[in-house]
Amino acid sequence: MKPQAVIFDLDGVITDTAHLHFVAWRNVAAEVGIMIDEKFNAELKGISRMASLERILHHGGKDAAFDLSAREALAGRKNALYVDSLSQLTPQSVLPGMTSLLHTLKAQGIKTGLASVSLNAPAILTALGLQSHFDFCADASRLKRSKPDPEIFLAACEGLKVDPARCIGIEDAQAGIEAINASGMLSVGIGVGLKHADLLLDSTEELTWPRLEAFWNQQQRACASSH
Ligand code: BG6
Ligand code: MG
Prior knowledge:
Helices cover 45% and strands 10% of the residues. The protein contains 9 helices and 6 strands; from the N terminus they run E-H-H-H-H-H-E-H-E-H-E-H-E-E-H. Helix 1 (18-31) crosses helix 4 (68-85) and helix 3 (49-59) crosses helix 4. It starts with a strand and ends with a helix.
C-alpha cells in the first residue's frame, strides 16, 4: 500500500529562503545593536517570526529591552525587508527535483500538502509558480502553536482527509522533524545534522519517488514484522 499523502515544509525543502530571512534579520538586529551570523541564523530554521525575534534579542542579551509593541514593530520591519526580497524568487528557485516529485506524486494518486509556518507561504508559492501544485496548504495564520508542536502537520492531514499514520512529512529543520514525529507521520529530513528523522537525505536531489517508495515499503515491512 502506498502512502496516502506526502506533506512538505516550504522554506528549505521546496525553495531556499534561509539567506533572504538572514539578510532581513541581520538588518533589523543591527538596528538594535545585535550582530548575527549565518551560523546563528541556522538556529532560526522552522521557527516562527516572533520566536525568531525573541531568540535574536536573547542572543544579544536584550530580552527585556523591548515591550510587545516594540517587538511587533521590529518584526514588521523585518517582514517588510523580507517581502521585498521575495521578488528575487522565480520558478527557477524551486530546489532540484521538487517540481518533478510533485508531478510524480500526483500521477501515483498520492495527495500533497504544505505545512509551512510562514505567513508568506502563499506569496512564495505564487512566485515559484507552484500555487496549484498542492492539494491542501495548511493556514499558518490559524496556528495556535508553532513547530515543534505537531499542530500544522495535523491540520494538513485534516485538510487532506488522510490518516497521519499513513503519511510522510518532509522537513529541513529540527523543530519540523520533531513536529512530524509527534504527529505520527514518518519523517524525512533534508540536510546534515538533523536528529530523529526516520530517513535522512543530503539534499532534495535524493528526494525522488522511488527513494520514498522504497523507504515506505521498508517501514511497512518492519511494522508488520513487529506485530
Ligand atoms: C519558516 C522559516 O518556514 O517560516 C523561518 O524557516 C521563518 O525562518 C518562519 O521565521 C516564519 O516566516 P514568516 O514568513 O512568517 O516570517
Ligand atoms: Mg524549513
